User: Which sequence fits this backbone?
């Protein structure tokens, strides 16, 4: 495994006053929250199944997966607005790819966005660069990772490499990257992404 991004924790205080539920948009957010708090009784709304699995592994008792992207998560919370009489805590990245807080505030849901981590580009090692002609595929879960790959490919072309992306939004930075293929998952979740990667008939 050679990640394009590295996760770094931020110094931040968690304010749980009035919070009735947590909104997680990634497993990184789950990890960042659980490192700071032992609270596990709050309801969890997760963007997709992988994030939901991370929350369950962290021993949250009530976890709902929106089975999609940030827009799906916003819809899941909006449809339960009457049940959520209080604050939704949104542990986020320093630079979220999409504006969950804005979407919730637009429908009158009180949300407290708290950046707990950041992702920074990690240059590929010399060993990865040496093996680049042998690498057939790369998995990308965010537009930020795709932008990092596109920048890397400017100096290290890989015309045989195929990129498998979590969504069309993730794939956009690779439009002119000179790859063999850029494939987007049918739905923005891990299972759909891995289905794209699997050979036909598997």
Assistant:
């Amino acid at each position: 495994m050679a990640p394009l991004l590295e996760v770094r924790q931020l110094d931040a205080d968690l304010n749980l006053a009035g919070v009735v539920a947590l909104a997680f948009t990634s497993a990184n957010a789950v990890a960042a929250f659980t490192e700071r708090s032992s609270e596990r009784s709050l309801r969890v709304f997760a963007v997709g199944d992988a994030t939901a699995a991370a929350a369950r592994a962290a021993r949250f008792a009530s976890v709902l997966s929106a089975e999609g992207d940030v827009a799906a998560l916003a819809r899941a919370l909006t449809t339960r607005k009457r049940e959520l009489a209080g604050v939704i805590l949104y542990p986020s990245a320093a630079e979220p790819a999409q504006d969950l807080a804005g979407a919730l505030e637009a429908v009158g849901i009180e949300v407290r966005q708290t950046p707990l981590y950041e992702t920074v580009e990690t240059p590929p090692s010399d060993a990865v660069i040496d093996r680049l002609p042998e690498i057939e595929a790369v998995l990308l879960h965010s537009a930020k990772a795709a932008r990092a790959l596109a920048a890397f490919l400017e100096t290290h072309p890989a015309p045989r490499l195929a990129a498998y992306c979590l969504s069309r939004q993730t794939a956009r930075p690779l439009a002119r990257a000179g790859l063999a293929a850029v494939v987007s998952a049918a739905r923005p979740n891990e299972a759909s992404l891995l289905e794209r990667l699997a050979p036909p008939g598997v």
Summary: The helical segments are 27-36, 49-57, 70-78, 100-105, 126-131, 143-155, 168-171, 190-197.
